[in-house]
Design goal:
The complex is a heterodimer of chains A (150) and B (543). Chain A contains 6 helices and 5 strands; from the N terminus they run E-H-E-H-E-H-E-H-E-H-H. Chain A is of the alpha/beta class. In chain A, strand 1, helix 1 and strand 2 form a beta-alpha-beta unit. Classes of the chains: A alpha/beta (150), B alpha/beta (543).
Chain lengths: 150, 543
């Protein structure tokens, strides 16, 4: 099984949803689908899900409200959120509820990698701590210094 | 606060003075007020953070600790939004001691008292500044109707200096004014008719409201240099000679953290790191800090709705947008108390030099972050040529001349009109007829604006008994003909105090002065009534 897991894909455009589902088949045990946040919440409340991939702009309940409600219901799995042009304000709102990554629609670049990392985190139940930040910080400083020298 | 009582703290070792304070507050209402005594030590600020008093009195007589450390701690306390409303007042043994420690007045002290004078005035004045409860003021002879323009001085502080410019923190929004700035950097360093180069709506470092940059006014290529002109080589030589005395700290970091207990940790941190620590309690207090100071690392404690929307991601976006516009500046931003992953945060802000952590800032780890950054800091600061002063160095203090219209004067309060807005609790310098300080307060009796400008009232303080006697005599001389006498005083070329004290027998008591005042048919001084603090000014306040 490795790091495969149960994904929940929340997307109101059927063609896009089908395309994404095909992209992620190899990474998942199962891919559940919902067309809006309200339907997605019902699924989360009944089924164990390892990672959620959701659009940010949706009818009935948008991505922000969906994430907020999910966290309120104690669902702590990683959320990968689709964004598009003009969604910067919504991204800032989403951030306060815990986003794992943002992926740009329609090109979806980096989606598979993000899902893979998210599932790894869920499976290994990795929690970030200050040591992780310190380690990432060291790398960042070194990269910045190298860039300045070149 | 203890049991919902309103608390005043006294720091010092004068038991007698402490008892006087206790008796005063007991007389007002023993159930409502409480006075606690603390000694000065390196962690004096802990009690202030814990007890959250309404008033703090620092008794500097026989103070034996590091005044620089004290002033720096005070400065940080004043940056915390919750603690900022507490008036910090200082007691000194003499005027000389006050002048030697003048730097305390822009590190957070808003009122001073020279011990030995009438303590009743001190107690009622600071009570009025600290509490909204009614208080009875003593009546003093007042010379109203003075109506004369005169220069006062705005106490300000040099934040940084180099051969090209001065950056000054101040309390008045001088914009497009041709200013005269008196400083004690070195003899001959006197700036006249200098215009501001850039005005910031936030102070950079000290306990002021604004920051202004000034270009040093060297003679231009077509000017014939005179003795009055400032010379660049003189300034450069002075800077070179003064280097050992400048603040040795290099570079800066910025910590944005609204939590009350963080203030203590930041004060402790400041003494452990080799760079300047900019502390902002709430982002809106100083959103220009990155532009003004270019901190190399920004530690941002995110606050969300449960904290009343302080230091939100949206606030951070404003900082990052400023950074993006600056081009050659790429600080590392560490976002704390944020549940989103670093990659998500970088995407959301469109800024790559960011990390995110769901935990809150651990201030004890900040030195470790700095060590890792050291090589990069050293590189960055090779080019830095701004020199900053030690906080306890009076060389950094300047006084900016500012013209107002004096309306009335007593030995207790002065009223005047000002064209520019003056924030409450700002400390100004007056020289009529001797040097004293004035803290702007909500009025204790009715005042009115005029076409000249808003009318302000201030408590007079910083006088010793000799000064008080001179001021009293001056007021008495003014009373029969306030405008003419005051104008004459201003017009006199040699305004020596001997003129005022020439008739030593003329020392009058306050009672006689009151009688004189009534005889002169001046507008009546308001009867002694209970005064409740009301703020008529819409605008900034230092508390």
């Amino acid at each position: 099984m490795g790091n495969k897991g149960v994904l929940l894909l929340v997307e109101d455009e059927k063609d896009v949803a089908d395309n994404i589902r095909d992209m992620l088949t190899d990474l998942s045990e199962k891919i559940l689908m919902a067309e809006n946040g309200a339907a997605a919440i019902e699924i989360l409340n009944k089924t164990k899900v390892d990672c959620v991939i959701t659009d940010i702009r949706m009818p009935i309940m948008n991505g922000v409200e969906f994430l907020k409600q999910a966290r309120k219901n104690k669902h702590q799995m990683p959320f990968i959120v689709f964004t598009g042009h003009g969604a910067e304000d919504l991204m800032l709102e989403v951030m306060q509820y815990g986003a794992f990554d943002f992926i740009n629609k329609p090109d979806l670049r980096g989606l598979e990698k993000a899902v893979s990392l998210a599932l790894k985190e869920t499976k290994n139940k990795m929690k970030s701590d200050s040591k992780e930040m310190m380690s990432d910080y060291k790398k960042m400083v070194e990269t910045q210094s190298t860039k300045k020298k070149t | 606060m203890t049991n919902n009582k309103k608390v005043a703290l006294y720091y010092g070792n004068d038991d007698e003075f402490f008892e006087i304070m206790q008796r005063f507050y007991k007389t007002i209402d023993p159930k409502a007020f409480s006075v606690h005594k603390h000694s000065f030590d390196n962690n004096f600020y802990s009690a202030i953070v814990k007890e959250h008093p309404h008033l703090v009195v620092f008794d500097f007589v026989n103070f034996k600790h590091d005044l620089g450390h004290f002033a720096q701690a005070l400065n940080f306390l004043r940056k915390n939004r919750e603690l900022r409303s507490i008036p910090f007042v200082a007691l000194f043994k003499s005027k000389e001691e006050l002048e030697q420690n003048l730097f305390l007045l822009d590190s957070g002290i808003v009122y001073t008292f020279i011990k030995g004078l009438d303590v009743d005035i001190f107690l009622t004045d600071v009570f009025f500044m600290a509490f909204e409860d009614p208080i009875r003021f003593r009546q003093f002879a007042t010379a109203p109707g003075i109506d004369c323009e005169a220069n006062i001085q705005v106490l300000s502080s040099i934040v940084s200096v180099n051969a090209d410019k001065l950056s000054i923190d101040t309390d008045i929004e001088f914009e497009d004014d041709a200013l005269t700035i008196q400083s004690n950097l070195f003899e001959g360093f006197y700036l006249k008719n200098i215009n501001s180069y850039f005005l910031n709506q936030n102070a950079r470092v000290y306990d002021h409201i604004f920051n202004i940059d000034f270009l040093l006014p060297y003679p231009g290529p077509w000017d014939t240099p005179t003795e009055e002109h400032l010379r660049r080589d003189t300034v450069e030589t002075w800077i070179e000679n003064f280097k050992p005395q400048f603040n040795p700290k290099v570079g800066s970091i910025c910590i944005v953290d609204h939590r009350l207990d963080s203030t203590e940790k930041i004060i402790e941190l400041n003494s452990k790191v080799p760079c300047h620590v900019n502390f902002i309690s709430e982002f809106t207090d100083n959103h220009n800090i990155v532009v003004m100071d270019r901190p190399s690392i920004i530690f941002y404690q995110t606050g969300y709705e449960e904290h009343g929307k302080k230091n939100t991601p949206q606030d951070l976006k404003i900082i990052i947008d400023q950074i993006k516009h600056m081009g050659d500046y790429e600080p590392i931003i560490l976002m704390f108390n944020n549940p989103s992953k670093s990659e998500a945060v970088r995407q959301a802000f469109g800024y790559q030099h960011m990390l995110s952590d769901a935990q809150s800032i651990e201030h004890s780890l900040i030195p470790e972050f700095l060590k890792i950054h050291e090589a990069k800091r050293t590189e960055q600061n090779k080019a830095a040529n701004e020199y900053k002063f030690q906080i306890q160095d009076n060389h950094r203090l300047v006084e900016i001349d500012y013209k107002v219209k004096i309306s009335s004067l007593s030995e207790h309060v002065v009223t005047f009109y000002s064209k520019r807005k003056i924030p409450l609790y700002v400390v100004l310098v007056f020289n009529f007829p001797i040097r004293f300080f004035v803290s702007i307060i909500p009025p204790i009796y009715e005042i009115h604006n005029s076409p000249y400008g808003n009318q302000y009232m201030g408590f007079i303080h910083g006088l010793d008994d000799k000064d008080l006697s001179i001021l009293r005599k001056f007021v008495n001389k003014l009373i029969p003909s306030p405008h003419d006498v005051f104008q004459q005083f201003l017009d006199t070329k040699n305004n020596k105090t001997e003129d005022i004290v020439e008739n030593a027998d003329d020392v009058t008591s306050a009672d006689k002065a009151v009688a004189d005042n009534e005889a002169a048919e001046q507008p009546s001084i308001p009867q002694r009534t209970m005064v409740v603090r009301k703020n008529p000014y819409k605008g900034k306040s230092k508390l």
